[in-house]
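Box 3.1 — From sequence to structure: Reactive intermediate/imine deaminase
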Amino acid sequence: MAKEIIHTDKAPAAIGAYSQAVKAGNTVYLSGQIPLDPVTMTVVEGGFAAETHQMFKNLKAVCEAAGGSLDQIVKLNAFLTDLSNFGTFNEIMGQYMSQPFPARAAIGVASLPKGVQVEADAIMVLGE
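Predicted structure (token representation):
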């Protein structure tokens, strides 16, 4: 099966040896998105909530570049440097995704790239 590399200028450019997403068949594997402004490539200011909103905007842009939407995500992995922000994450996630929600893991981590507080990667399945 051939793989298709997904790229959009509406999300931050890869800052390492990876693609924003890879499509194989009707499944899209989305790389982790952090709260970088895609134009300036700097971390957004405003705390955890602002970072989470930007992270979901970036994830949405990659989904759309692959021909899908956030609601087609079947699995989401969330990485938080402080699990006390989990409630805020849930609230913001509900503003970007609707029920039925995807399967999800929320993982507390010591640190993330560029000192951000949140990152998420996902698997999306496109309609046939």
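Summary of the box: The radius of gyration is 14 Å.
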